[in-house]
Amino acid sequence: MQRFTRTALQRLLLLSTIAILWASYPLSAQSITAARINEVMIDNVDNYIDSYGKRSPWIEIYNSSAGTIDLAGCFLTDDPQDLKKYMIPKGDILTIIKPRQSVVFFADEMPLRGTFHLNFTLTPETPHYLALVSSDGSSIIDEVEIPAAIPADHSYARIDDGVRTVAPAKAWHITQHTTPGSNNVVKDKNEKINRLQEADPNGFVMTVTAMLVVFLGLLILFLAYKLIGIVAMRLENRKQALYKAPHSESTTTASTTDDPLVAVAISLALTTELELGGGEAPGQLTIRPRTQTYEPWSDKSQMMRPTVECKRLKA
């Protein structure tokens, strides 16, 4: 039983491996077919420079798929009778193109300079044929015919990156806006700005709008700070009112009972009342200011005298 189980597992593992290898082959073949000749420059006078500081014709290969592809082992040619004219070397990681990215090959007849330097060149006087061939050397992945007399520093490029159409005249155009190693479709205009320029050519509306926005922002800030200040003042006034209430009551009580001068005056008045036998009217206490020109408190006669009870105790 154990031997039977081990044999079944080995068979299952072998079948899984074969299935994975079989499935991966068509996926790999399908991914390399997404490579496109995307842009070509024939007469490079004052344009793209290679790593050696030289200007030469160049060819851009674009990955139009959503997966990574590897050009290693494929061929580039300008001769339909010789599809294996230049083989892209294997083992260079720079031949791996990520999705929606591209690489540039220089047609300078100097293949010893590296992977991206071809063994053929292109001249502007004559039309040219270019093809990207699969690693089998016979299956053409992509091809294009380039017209002659393209102006200097102009490229022959796809209107939409990596898109094939039935009529090549609708897929390609001659452009001065070259984009080696980048997407051909570059948005250099803003539709909203263009509409605004048409509606307001002198910029008056834009100026007024900008000023209104600035002043409105300042007004909002002023009102916000004003409101914060009013709230803060009200809170402070309420806090001070709550703090002063108990202190005012204690101050009033102290002024009538705890002031020593008031207590002395009341004692003197009571003493005089007891000695003289009353004031001008019964039940009234009269305190009159003295008519002396000197200070009465400095007079010896006004010194503190013993009260009636004290005299009775002495007697």
UniProtKB/TrEMBL annotation:
GO terms for molecular function: sodium ion transmembrane transporter activity. It holds the Pfam family OAD_gamma. Keywords: Cell membrane, Membrane, Transmembrane, Transmembrane helix. Residues 26-148 form the LTD domain. GO terms for biological process: sodium ion export across plasma membrane. Its main location: membrane. This is Sodium pump decarboxylase, gamma subunit. It comes from Porphyromonas uenonis 60-3. The lineage of its organism: Bacteria, Pseudomonadati, Bacteroidota, Bacteroidia, Bacteroidales.
